[in-house]
Structure to design on (111 residues):
């Protein structure tokens, strides 16, 4: 549901399922699978994620907290217009870096 692909020192998680209560654990399991590669640097590419609910937003913040605990971080790339609105309205875009381009999101870890 949320496959993880490694490119250099960055893991990219993508998905096509809504980030909702039904898929929260699958998303967090994918995040956890990135932790065996050292300091987590994760891009969550949301281009095919049609929507999210409050549980999905909590999962994003939980993923951020887990990554920070290990000295890493997670950023978001290419959210759909609906997901971008949900992130903005709920202030999650202030909690996580959001990029319009997946390559820029990956490059953010080089800074």
């Amino acid at each position: 549901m949320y496959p993880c692909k490694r490119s250099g020192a960055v893991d990219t998680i993508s998905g096509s399922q809504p980030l909702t209560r039904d898929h929260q654990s699958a998303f967090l399991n994918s995040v956890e699978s990135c932790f065996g590669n050292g300091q987590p640097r994760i891009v969550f590419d949301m281009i095919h994620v049609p929507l999210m609910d409050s549980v999905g937003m909590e999962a994003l913040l939980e993923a951020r907290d887990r990554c920070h605990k290990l000295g890493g971080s997670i950023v978001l790339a290419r959210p759909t217009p609906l997901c971008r609105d949900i992130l903005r309205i709920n202030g999650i875009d202030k909690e996580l870096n959001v990029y319009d381009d997946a390559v820029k999101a990956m490059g953010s870890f080089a800074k």
Remarks:
- The mean pLDDT is 95.
- Helices lie at 24-33, 54-69, 81-89, 92-95, 102-107.
